[in-house]
Structures are given as C-alpha cells and as structure tokens.
Amino acid sequence: MATKLKKITVSAQCVAPEQNKSDLLVISFFKDSKTLPNCYKAIDKVAGGQISTMIELGDFKASLNETTTLYTAKAPFARVMLVGLGDPDALTLNNLRLAAGTAVRVASKLNTAKVTMAIHAIADDVDAEHVGQAITEGVNIGRYDYQDFLTKDKVDTTTMKVIIADTKEANVKAIRKGIKVGAALADGQLQARILGNTHGGEINPGTLAAAAGKLARANGLQCKVFNDKQLKDMKMNGILAVGQGSANKSRLIMLTHKGRKAAGTDIVLVGKAVTFDSGGLSLKPSAGMETMKHDKCGGCSVIGAIIAAAQLGIKKNIVALIPSAENMPDGNSYRPGDVFTSYSGKTVEVLNTDAEGRLILCDALTYGAQMKPAAMIDMATLTGAAVVALGTHYAALLGNDQELVDAIKQGAKVAGEPMWQLPCDEGYLEQMKSRIADLKNTGGRQGGTCSAAAFLGEFVGDTKWAHIDIAAVADTDKEQPYRTHGATGYAVRAVVEYLRSL
Ligand code: BES
Ligand code: MN
Ligand code: ZN
Fold it and tell me: Which one of 328, 339, 426, 495 is most buried, counting C-beta atoms within 10 A?
C-alpha cells in the first residue's frame, strides 16, 4: 500500500549557526526589513556580506513563506536560505511552522542532506520549547508528498537531517523537549495523511481495520475490530445499512490508549471512515466523485490522534471508535424510504442514502456514550454545506457543551488548524424529525451542517460532546505552503493539543 515514510530527524545543538557545518543554513526575516538584524550579523560576515546587501537593496521582501537561496562557497554552510515570516506583529508559532515547512520543501529540490535552522533567532519572544515543536512539525509535515503512484518525477525524499542551532544551553534543552512533542504530533498527522490518501480500490473497511491494527501494535495501543456478523449481533444497524450494498463489509474499529492505571474511559474520539462514498442509490454526480475516497479522513484523523496521544504518553484513558463502511449502489443496497432501528433503539427513516455519515456515526456515538467519558469528540467529512458555509479556511465546530467547544477551539488555534463554531440547538433538531420514525436522515438544504450535527447530538445522551465537520479541509487540491495536495490530516494536531491541555 503506502510508501514508507522517510521522517526527518530533528535535533538541537548548542552552537552558533554560522559555525555549524551543513549543506544549508536557514534564517528568517520579518516583512520589509531594511537593515540586517543583529542576530544575523555573524552569519552575514561569514557569507561575505551577501545577506546585508540583499536586505538593504530590498530585493527580499520577506512575505510569509517567500524564500531565496544564496551560495556562500567557503562558509561552513554551503548555502543560506532566507525565509519570510511576514508581519512581525502577526507572528505566531504557525508562521514558524510554515517557514520551516516551506524551507524543507525548497531544500528537497536541492542536494541538501544536512540543514541547520536558525529561523527562531529573530523572534526572541516565542518560547524555546514551542520553537522546537513548531519546527519539527513544520519540516515533517512539509516534507511529505503523496507520490505513491508516480513512477517518475518524484520529489526527492532522501534522508534529511535538521539541526536547530541555538547558543543558549537553556534554550537548547527546551527546544529538545519541544522536538519530542512535535515529532509525535507530526507522526500522527502523517499517518492520517498516508491512510487518507489511499484510494477505494486499495482500502476498504476490512483493510482499514488491518492497517489500524498494525499501527496499534507499533504504538502500544489495543485494537478490537467488530466485523459485520458481530455488528449484526450488537444491532449496529446504521453501520450495517450503509455498507449493505458493498462487497466490502462494514467494520467498527476500536483502538484504546491506556494512559492511567484506573479503569474507566476519559475521552472517546469517533471518526467517520466511509472508504468510498458514491452516494449509494442516491448516487452522486460523476464530477468530483473521485474526491470521495477522502470520505474516510475523519476516521484517519482519529487514528492519527490516538497514535500521537500514545507516543506522548498522555495520562488519560482514550478510546477511538472508527465506524467504517463503503457506500455503494447495488441490488442489496439500503434504499431511500427504508427505516432502520439504530443501536440506540431510535428509529431512523432514510430519505437520502448519500447522507450516510451520520448513520454510521450515530451507532458509534451511542456506543461511546455508554463508556461514560468526560468528553466525546467526533470528526467527519459530513456535509457539503460546511464547504458552502465556511469555505476551505475553517473546519466547522459544533457541540452541546461550550466549555468543551472552547477548549477544542483553543487547541485548533495552537495547532494552526482553525475551526469556527456553528450552532446545533433545538431548531435544527426540528428539521430532523420524521413523520413515520423518530428521526430522518436529511433535514433539507438549509443549515445542513447544523441539522446534521443536531441529528448526531440525539445519540450522545448527556455526554459532553463536540463535532468537527472537516468536509472542507480534509483534502486540498492546492499546493499550500507546507501542505501538499491530497489528504491533510486536519484536526489531528488540534485534538491532540486539546488532550495535552487536560
Ligand atoms: N461525504 C459527504 C459530504 C462531503 C461533501 C464531504 C463534499 C466532502 C466534500 C456526505 O456523505 C454527503 O454526501 N452529504 C450530503 C448530505 C445531504 C444528502 C443531506 C451533502 O452534503 O450533500
Ligand atoms: Mn454521502
Ligand atoms: Zn460521506
């Protein structure tokens, strides 16, 4: 299946950047600076004054993610790359993460095996641990390209080593702490992207479960998979209905991270993993249907998040539930008009087989709520309406507990994975009431993201719950500065930052 990932090892050294022998030294600048900052004077001297000349001439504007590379011939560093951080007043860790990612993307095209980074030198008000974390995340997420099926013209991904140079011993210690955190977060996100990028022909509920089991073993997680027979015994009729028309039978995947001795579940994560969403009998139009291989990205993000939580040794008991089905048209498919009894006992009338995500999620949410967690968070590529409402700049965030929503929003901010809250109260639930069953699975075009969440909310009981609709952000066709086309692994780092804050 997926190509083996070549991770970038990041380390910190107590050394003056200009003295560190490397193929490339990366430094950063704020927008429109006209004079060389003091922190780069020694580097400029070694580089023969080229950097100060460039800055004084105003040729390098230092807009966010702008880069230029100079050649230094005799210096301990063969090249020096200037990378822009944009406006100093708008400097966030996200800018450092972006700058680091941008730099390695450019460096990948050069012959650079050993890279020294001093991009934090200019930003003396950000703390060193966060610097280590942001750079480690940025370089590893930035380096990844989905190119499993390219037989030529691959971007070079040979081994690259990054050294963060700092002359203060205390800073170096803190940076090293941050590197460990960043490595775990990047790993979780990359696993989510690798899984997310696979196509429907190579991954289905059964093979996704096998891949999750393999990742679980590698990361010390427990894994339990419920197959279609077990799902039938448990009366998980939502997960079964959606997969009914597919030759690839449904699964419910459960991963457990035991972070503390005592029994009980602290947090449940739930992720929609529809390995391909054709719409079923309510078939989608052909245009763009290929993007529905990404309809498993919520589940992939949940897998990535619990992997990162395990690697970080988060001291909470966390359960990840990944309901997985393939939504296909067939003589055996579930139909518009069908009514089924969900795992909760509530009956649901199916009006549109393309509103399938909520049908697999409802059973998993009920199952999760039975564990009585302190909080339950689900992630799903649930509604096209989320794309219409917010565009691709935010994931939609909804829930029944403002404190939980605020805490996740904060994690999203730290991670640079923005989320915008939408409402899902009573009025939206009205849209989901059926005349012949307890609920129906579509509530009309108005407020589609909100009514879908209101539907989900009916299955969580009194559990504090938040829902992240990642339909707009789970994949991209753009070459973003440090995040390439394909699955993005969105919400992995946001949710893990939330877990870290507990
Ligand atoms: N997987 C889609 C939602 C989606 C749309 C994700 C675009 C990513 C990009 C979901 O299963 C779906 O088809 N939702 C329908 C619901 C409708 C029939 C009520 C939608 O949004 O159109
Ligand atoms: Mn659908
Ligand atoms: Zn879907």
Answer: 495
Q: Is the pLDDT of residue 156 over 90?
A: no
CA distance linking residue 422 with residue 409, whole number of Å: 12
Using alpha carbons only, give the angle 203, 456, 429 rounded to the nearest 5 degrees. Answer: 145
Single out the residue of 361, 388, 405, 386 nearest to residue 470, CA to CA.
386
The two tokens of residue 155 are: 């971007």
- Give the span between the Cα atoms of 197 and 184, in whole angstroms: 20
Q: Is the pLDDT of residue 472 over 60?
A: yes
Residue 177 bears catalytic tag: no
pLDDT at site 477? 87
Q: What is the mean pLDDT of the chain?
A: 96
Please state whether the predicted TM-score (pTM) of the whole model is above 0.85: yes
371 CA distance to ligand 1 middle (Å): 29
- Domains, the chain, ranges and CATH? 9-183 (3.40.220.10), 198-501 (3.40.630.10)
The bound ligand whose nearest atom lies closest to the alpha carbon of 291 is 1
CB neighbour list of residue 27: distance below 8 Å, 6 or more residues apart: 17, 40, 43, 51, 80, 81, 82, 83, 118, 119, 121, 122
CA of 465 to the centre of ligand 3 (A): 21
Predicted confidence at residue 6, as pLDDT, reads: 72
Q: Please list every protein residue whose CB sits less than 6 Å from any atom of ligand 1.
A: 277, 295, 352, 354-357, 381-385, 387, 442, 448, 471
Residue 270 in 3-state DSSP?
Answer: strand
Q: Could you tell me which residues are beta bridge partners of residue 467?
A: 378, 398
The whole-angstrom separation of Cα 429 and Cα 228 is 30
What is d(CA 474, CA 417) in angstroms, rounded to the nearest whole number? 11
Beta strands (DSSP E) in 6-78 are 9-14, 24-29, 67-71
- DSSP annotation string for 247-269: SS--EEEEEEEE-SSSSS-SEEE
